[in-house]
């Protein structure tokens, strides 16, 4: 029969798993199955057990999201793969010019006719993915053996700042990757996830209301608020602000090469615990892409997050 210490360790493990599952359902799936009071009761029980048995505190425990203050400048980290900026296309003509450059680069044709371009791309098996470009702060997250170890800003594209202490407070950033449904394969040794840290419009309004009540200057827009929060030295402050994270790609890890397409990579990211860029869609032709861009432009005022365009990927 297990002694009291063994029972406490088992209960800590049970509570960590249960609370992380509830956090995932709430912050990623938007489908909670318990209310805030029930969650808080479990959280307090875990905190009390960890205080009695600090040797059994797990790195992925929800109580460990908020760490100590950091001092001085943030460390600089070189990206394994550069975080490149995106090319802009303001209308259908510029979108077609981008497609033609891609076809030429791949040796698939040099025809200015849109129908011929679409036929050449379709015949070569090319497809296009569209997803809204969240107006936030680009971030690279590194996982080793399934555990979150580092968050780095885009910086100049080659290197960025280590802001792990603040990003780990974001509830939609998993501390440990989930095993994909129906998969017997272990989580890879190294996974690097690219995405966007953002602040929702509703969260931004609540934040500014609180700042006004506290006699503090308000933020100009959600992006500035998110960027300012990420660069704070005190993670306790970041934890008080409702930041979110949308994953939009895999890069520089040991998993991305095994997936046949960007769509497959997005599906995998969703399976292991990330909220992915909303409503990514696959298209056969550039005409479909341009129509989808128009749909997002019409929907922009109704969204709870700011976007500054639509990302198109081959």
Task: Tell me briefly what this model is.
With 314 residues, the chain is an alpha+beta fold. It has helices at residues 4-27, 36-52, 92-105, 114-123, 164-167, 201-213, 222-230, 235-239, 262-271, 286-299; strands spanning 76-78, 128-134, 137-144, 147-153, 159-161, 190-199, 243-250, 281-283, 307-313. It has 2 domains: 4-64, Helix hairpin bin (Helix Hairpins, Orthogonal Bundle); 76-83 and 133-313, DNA ligase/mRNA capping enzyme (D-amino Acid Aminotransferase, Chain A, domain 1), CATH 3.30.470.30.
Protein topology:
Layout: H1 4-27, H2 36-52, E1 76-78, H3 92-105, H4 114-123, E2 128-134, E3 137-144, E4 147-153, E5 159-161, H5 164-167, E6 190-199, H6 201-213, H7 222-230, H8 235-239, E7 243-250, H9 262-271, E8 281-283, H10 286-299, E9 307-313
Antiparallel strand pairs: 1-5, 2-8, 2-9, 3-4, 3-6, 6-7
Helix pairs in contact: 1-2, 3-4
